[in-house]
Amino acid sequence: MTPIPEATRLSILDRSRVRRGQSHADALRDTVEFAQLAERWGYHRFWVAEHHSVPGVAGTAPTVLVAAVAAATARIRVGTGGVMLPNHQPLVVAEQFGVLASLFPGRIDMGLGRSVGFTDGVRRALAHDRADAEDFDADLGELLDYFDAGRFGVHAGSAEGAHLPTFVLATGSGAERAARFGLPLVIAQVGDRAAMVRAIERYRAEFRPSARAEQPYVIVSATVMIADTTALAHRLLLPEAWSSAYARTRGEFPALLSPEEIDATTMTARQRELFERALDDQIHGSEAEVADSLGQLITQTGAEEILVHTSTFDRTARLDSHRRLAGLRSAAH
């Protein structure tokens, strides 16, 4: 079994996924309970995400959910993966995180992305029609200014002077942007791994030290599922893969179905293609198989941290997978 390097941190991103027959309220309560368990198991961070008008995701207000998670835990770092900056005014984001940093000093992370609403209707409801790189760069620069000394005489209250770890979620040119602003990078392990490695290498080569980060820092996000057998671990990944395929062909991200319901589903050729592609890059299997796969990923990317974002219909199996993943470190050392 390839050991996970002791210096590599393990963290969790939870999107508050809704299962068929479950309410959004229950999904949000599950997130808070999950964070408490993650703290007990020794994870470094617990992050939540931002989605709007998505039936299968309850996490619509990440800073509010961060407050609930931080209040229910005591040591684990809590943050966003991420707040989608095109959806918000930079001043408001700075104020919200300033309050969080004041209430939970030394525990809050600010992860930022540039994805916009899932559909045209959602984008209109969010009252914006811009999401290009230039807009994001301007908004990011303005946001960071509020934490430094305000901007053009406008101050963001408790945010000013707060030393808040800030992360850029890589989409498209995100790696280069993180390097230019001198910020840690969060990049997803999906699709062409060689392309991801090249993006990380560019990030490290082009990184400009800043007051927020003196050197590059890479977090690779990945789906990880541990079960008693490889086949069972693979089966547990079917609900999220089907949800992704359905969303890309029907324009709606649904609640998670059980594997048995997916077995009975008739997929179009396009849905089958997307479904199988969604399963390609998942790290799954027994503890030994997962440790070997993660060890290879860490060696290839030089990642300082792995951010696990795993969803499945079986909540108990998901929690067991994360518990077993946390145990790999002590088992390997």
Strand and helix map with partners:
Elements: E1 9-14, H1 24-41, E2 45-48, H2 62-72, E3 77-80, E4 83-84, H3 90-103, E5 108-113, H4 120-125, H5 133-148, E6 166-169, H6 174-181, E7 185-188, H7 193-206, E8 218-222, E9 224-226, H8 230-236, H9 238-250, H10 259-263, H11 269-280, E10 283-285, H12 287-301, E11 305-308, H13 315-332
Parallel strand pairs: 1-2, 1-11, 2-3, 3-5, 4-5, 5-6, 6-7, 7-8, 8-11, 9-10
Q: Which features characterize this protein?
A:
333 residues; alpha/beta; 8-stranded parallel beta barrel; globular
Biggest sheet, strands in spatial order?
1-2-3-5-6-7-8-11
Q: What would the average pLDDT be, to the nearest integer? A: 91
Count of individual helical segments: 13
What coarse outline follows from CA principal-axis ratios? globular
Termini separation (Å)?
11 Å
Low-confidence stretches: none
Counting helices, strands and paired strands, the structural category is: alpha/beta
User: How are helices and strands ordered from N to C?
Assistant: EHEHEEHEHHEHEHEEHHHHEHEH
Helical amount: 40-55%
Largest sheet: 8 strands, parallel, barrel
Please tally the β strands and state the result.
Answer: 11
Q: Please state roughly what percent of the residues sit in beta strands, choosing from under 5%, 5-15%, 15-25%, 25-35%, 35-45% or over 45%.
A: 5-15%
Using only CA atoms, what is the Rg?
A: 19 Å
